[in-house]
Amino acid sequence: MIKWGVIGAGNMGRIFAETIKEIDNAILVAVASTNNKSLDSFGDNFKIEKEFRFKNYESICKNDNIDAIYISTLNNTHFDLIKMCAVNKKHILCEKPFCLNLVEALEIEKIINLNNVKFFEAIAYVSHPQTDSILDIINKGEIGEIKSIESSFGFRVRKVKPESRLFNKKLGGGAILDIGCYPMSFISLFSNNNNEIKFQNIRGEICETNVDIAASAEILVNDKINCKIKVSLKEYFENNSIIYGSKANIKINSPWLPGKKTFLEIYNKNRYYKQFIESDLSVYANQIKNVSNEFLKKISVGDKLFDISKAVKNMKYLDLWIKNIN
After folding, report:
1. I need a labelling partner for 177 at 20 to 30 A (CA). Which of 122, 202, 262, 312 fits?
2. 297 within some domain
């Protein structure tokens, strides 16, 4: 049983606390927040003992009764918190993006390896059975050779607020950092290795707070798969992914937050069918269970998770995407 602590008593911290109830290999025992009101509310709602409600982040990291930490604070705080967890020998699950740029990513990788702790970035969809089904269909040759991929994530924020985490550069704002990790990580699933991802065309829009509010990219994977990805904070997209093969295509209607019951659409000019997928757990619960198993060293499910190596490689391309817009 992995004993978890949560740093950050906001929305994602609460989702974690609610979700962990679904699984049997982990338990939430502690929370840390610098906001006393949020700390008390969180502690009361999730029945955290008073002695495990920490008013500063260092105390939760140093507590010997905690095995792992989930970091759910603002993007710009992740670097220091990951370091604090690692030096105190706590395993880590960190909300995306786990840092703000490639320089930070490489430094975090050194810290993680030096302290011999396990780290995962919270790209939850990778843990869902739907991702296994997609890869299984492709590996069986059902759609033939992959020719191209389209993937998007966009939603509309009504007003650009300079103080908002989405639009404040100091807080790690911008469409690419906030949601670009999803389509970028998705096309990486089909790369022989992430060094075979090449940007061919990049477009974007910088808003008045000097962060990207929308961005797109055309990317060549493995020198043969043409990919188009796009993200936006000003426009609703279909938020799907489509894989075009030489024999057939796969449409993933809910790639980023698939439900317990979901389906894929497989089609060509002669045939169309749906492949239904059921999961006993929610998308976040699948992730927590897999991460906890890795920490327990019971079951290796590394291919269903975003470890430090994958996280660094993904940040490499997010960083490049951002810099070529600016």
Report:
1. 262
2. no
Pick from 120, 9, 3: nearest CA to 74: 9
pLDDT tens for 3-14 read: 999 999 999 999
Spatial contact of 20 and 67, defined as CB atoms under 8 Å apart: no
Answer yes or no: do 110 and 154 share one domain.
Answer: no
Domain boundary residue among 91, 124, 157? 124
Query: Which CATH number is 97's domain given?
Result: 3.40.50.720
| The token pair that represents 83 in the structure block | 């370091």
Query: Residue 295: inside a domain, yes or no?
Result: no
Q: In this predicted model, what pLDDT tens digit does every residue of 105-141 receive, in sequence order? A: 999 999 999 999 999 999 999 999 999 999 999 999 9
How far apart are alpha carbons 68 and 295 in whole angstroms?
8
Residues 282 and 22 sit within 8 Å (Cβ to Cβ): yes
- Residue 95 domain boundaries: 2-124
- Crossing angle between the packed helical segments 102-115 and 308-325, to the nearest 10 degrees: 170
Q: For residue 44, tell me if it sits in a domain.
A: yes
Amino acid at 71: I
Which of residues 124, 153, 169 is at a domain's end?
A: 124
CA distance 44 to 29: 12
Residue 161: pLDDT over 60:
yes
pLDDT band at 269 (very low <50, low <70, confident <90, very high): confident
Q: Are residues 20 and 155 in the same domain?
A: no
DSSP 248: -
Looking at the DSSP assignment, which residues form a beta bridge with residue 198? 220
121 HSE (CA, 13 A, CB side): 24
